[in-house]
Amino acid sequence: MYPLSIPMVNCMKTTDFNNIKLAGVTQGEAQQVIEQIVKGSGVEDFTLVREPSNPHDPHAVKVECCDMYIGYIPQIMSKEVADMMDNGHNLAGRLNRINSSPYHATLGLTIDIVAV
């Protein structure tokens, strides 16, 4: 696996698929799954799953750990990631860091997207 930096065709910048803070980490049982990751399960790679029928975002990319939901790629980036997946690129998420706050118990994840 290797990290991705994708050159954009119609502009001068490069989209960096590193340091992506997952959205939706408080939904469903995501907090329990993330807590297991924090407790040292050894899991560092995550599955990216396209959800074209998602009513909130037709470009939605769900992130799973061991077939369990942990979050989504933020909507601001989901179209680029979804387009790559739809064009046959095999992508995965890799743990970058676990996010916590001294003010509340909610945990989050920051991942890098890698080609597999």
Structure summary, number of beta strands: 9
SSE pattern, N- to C-terminal: EEEEHEEEHEE
Return the structural class: alpha+beta
Tell me which CATH architecture applies here. 2-Layer Sandwich
Query: Could you give a short account of the major beta sheet?
Result: 7 strands, antiparallel
Radius of gyration: 14 Å
Q: Which fold name corresponds to the CATH topology?
A: Alpha-Beta Plaits
Percentage beta strand: 35-45%
Our count of domains comes out at: 1
Uncertain ranges: 6-14
The CATH class name reads Alpha Beta
Proportion of helical residues = 10-25%
Overall description:
This protein has helices at residues 30-38, 75-86, and strands at 2-3, 5-7, 14-16, 20-21, 45-51, 60-65, 68-72, 91-99, 108-115. The chain has one domain (2-115): Alpha-Beta Plaits. It is an alpha+beta fold and 116 residues long. Strands 1, 4, 5, 6, 7, 8 and 9 form a seven-stranded antiparallel sheet that branches. It has a two-stranded antiparallel ribbon with strand order 2-3.
